[in-house]
């Protein structure tokens, strides 16, 4: 980072006004984007995959985060491992992005060969003094939290992921993610900065006019509202949601399903939030008729009407766990004005498409919602590049969680530059 960029960034961080959107350069400046990749995506735990992506020994998935490429695989001892996708000979990229199966990791350049434990097994013509033990693949920190796979590129990853795991595993365990499979996966390129993608996700102020599919099962009131602005019908709906949340939380907790809100979005390095939210009508699933999309329940869940467990992590994920399926979302910045959103829909591993579920019905709510969000992020990015852009105030009723994301980001960047 040049001295000029450092001074600009420190000035912007110092003058950030709580309760207001970030200034335009945070969304548009390539130098600031590079610092984001270094200090946020290079130093924090990043959600990248699910255990069903590497269900069996030899299964592998390659994920790119900025300039870094990481191989995630399951070894013969059933342990999940992660390595930099860089050959220890002359640095060639070895496996393309995506899922594959490997017996060994073989560099296509000079055939250096590594076991799925990362150890160098074969390197021809290197001489008698060459020690293969010193040329194994570089390890990447990896942690599965109830089947959600996180990696950290830092040499000293934040230790508080263990605190997050301790809280979250009881919430996630009943859905038995490890015994699911990925029924469908979608990569959507959003024409906006990654922070706009996260900010859009952290509020439902925009849901009513923009998400006609999502607001069938999902109550926007669960993310805050201004009581004085509601008409009579909306007031009744808000009251109905509040009563439903209270009774459902008590019932679910009584059934052994942790449900009440836990919120650490801006007071932990590995920030997170969770809450089991009521689903409208039947209460079963985030579908257009709110009924379960898959007839095979997850885990040992007997009650179909268990709402949707919402789980967010800083800086790049959100997830919805229901009784019949799971939807996970990962955000990967591509450049200052482009972001990849990767969505996976998971069902029980024994569920059969066309028999136990219809793929369109399973995915249609979030397919539509993702595209609607991408359109909103795009117009937000366009506005951030306009000379007339000025950071406006957040709603104290509906955008409190956006403020927590912004506060977390500002705090982590300040700590990195201190």
From TrEMBL:
<dbReference type="InterPro" id="IPR001663">
    <property type="entry name" value="Rng_hydr_dOase-A"/>
</dbReference>
<keyword id="KW-0411">Iron-sulfur</keyword>
<dbReference type="InterPro" id="IPR017941">
    <property type="entry name" value="Rieske_2Fe-2S"/>
</dbReference>
<dbReference type="Pfam" id="PF00355">
    <property type="entry name" value="Rieske"/>
</dbReference>
<dbReference type="GO" id="GO:0051537">
    <property type="term" value="F:2 iron, 2 sulfur cluster binding"/>
</dbReference>
<dbReference type="InterPro" id="IPR036922">
    <property type="entry name" value="Rieske_2Fe-2S_sf"/>
</dbReference>
<keyword id="KW-0560">Oxidoreductase</keyword>
<dbReference type="GO" id="GO:0016491">
    <property type="term" value="F:oxidoreductase activity"/>
</dbReference>
<keyword id="KW-0001">2Fe-2S</keyword>
<dbReference type="Pfam" id="PF00848">
    <property type="entry name" value="Ring_hydroxyl_A"/>
</dbReference>
<dbReference type="GO" id="GO:0005506">
    <property type="term" value="F:iron ion binding"/>
</dbReference>
<dbReference type="InterPro" id="IPR015879">
    <property type="entry name" value="Ring_hydroxy_dOase_asu_C_dom"/>
</dbReference>
<keyword id="KW-0479">Metal-binding</keyword>
<protein>
    <submittedName>
        <fullName>(Fe-S)-binding protein</fullName>
    </submittedName>
</protein>
<keyword id="KW-0408">Iron</keyword>
<feature type="domain" description="Rieske">
    <location>
        <begin position="47"/>
        <end position="151"/>
    </location>
</feature>
């Amino acid at each position: 980072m040049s001295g000029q960029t450092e001074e600009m960034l420190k000035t912007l961080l110092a003058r950030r006004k709580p309760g207001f959107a970030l200034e335009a350069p945070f969304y548009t400046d390539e130098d600031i984007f590079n610092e984001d990749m270094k200090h946020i995506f290079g130093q924090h735990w990043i959600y990248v995959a699910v255990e069903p992506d590497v269900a069996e020994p030899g299964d592998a998935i390659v994920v790119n985060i900025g300039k870094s490429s990481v191989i995630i695989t399951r070894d013969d001892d059933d342990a999940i491992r992660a390595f930099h996708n860089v050959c220890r000979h002359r640095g060639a990229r070895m496996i393309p992005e995506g899922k594959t199966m490997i017996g060994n990791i073989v560099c296509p350049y000079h055939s250096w060969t590594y076991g799925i434990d990362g150890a160098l097994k074969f390197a021809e013509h290197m001489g008698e003094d060459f020690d293969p033990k010193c040329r194994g693949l570089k390890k990447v920190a990896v942690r599965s939290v109830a089947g959600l796979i996180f990696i950290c590129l830092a040499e000293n990853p934040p230790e508080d992921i263990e605190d997050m795991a301790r809280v979250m595993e009881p919430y996630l365990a009943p859905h038995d993610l490890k015994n699911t499979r990925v029924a469908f996966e979608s990569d959507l390129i959003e024409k906006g900065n990654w922070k706009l993608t996260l900010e859009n996700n952290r509020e439902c102020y925009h849901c009513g006019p923009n998400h006609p599919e999502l607001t069938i099962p999902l109550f926007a009131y669960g993310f805050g509202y201004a009581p004085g602005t509601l008409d009579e019908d909306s007031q009744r709906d808000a009251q109905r949601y509040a009563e439903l949340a209270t009774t459902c939380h008590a019932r679910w907790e009584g059934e052994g399903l942790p449900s009440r809100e836990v919120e650490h979005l801006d007071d932990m390095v590995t920030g997170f939030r969770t809450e089991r939210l009521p689903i409208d009508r039947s209460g079963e699933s985030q579908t257009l008729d709110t009924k379960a999309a898959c007839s095979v329940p997850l885990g040992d869940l007997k009650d179909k009407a268990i709402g949707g467990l919402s789980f967010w992590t800083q800086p790049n994920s959100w997830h919805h766990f229901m009784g019949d399926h799971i939807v996970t979302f990962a955000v990967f910045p591509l450049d200052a004005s482009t972001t990849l959103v990767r969505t996976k829909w998971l069902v029980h591993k024994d569920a059969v498409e066309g028999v136990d579920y219809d793929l369109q019905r399973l995915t249609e709510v979030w397919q539509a919602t993702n595209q609607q969000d991408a359109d909103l992020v795009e117009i937000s990015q366009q506005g951030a590049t306009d000379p007339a852009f000025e950071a406006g105030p957040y709603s104290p009723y509906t955008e409190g969680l956006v403020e927590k994301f912004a506060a977390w980001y500002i705090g982590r960047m300040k700590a990195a530059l201190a």
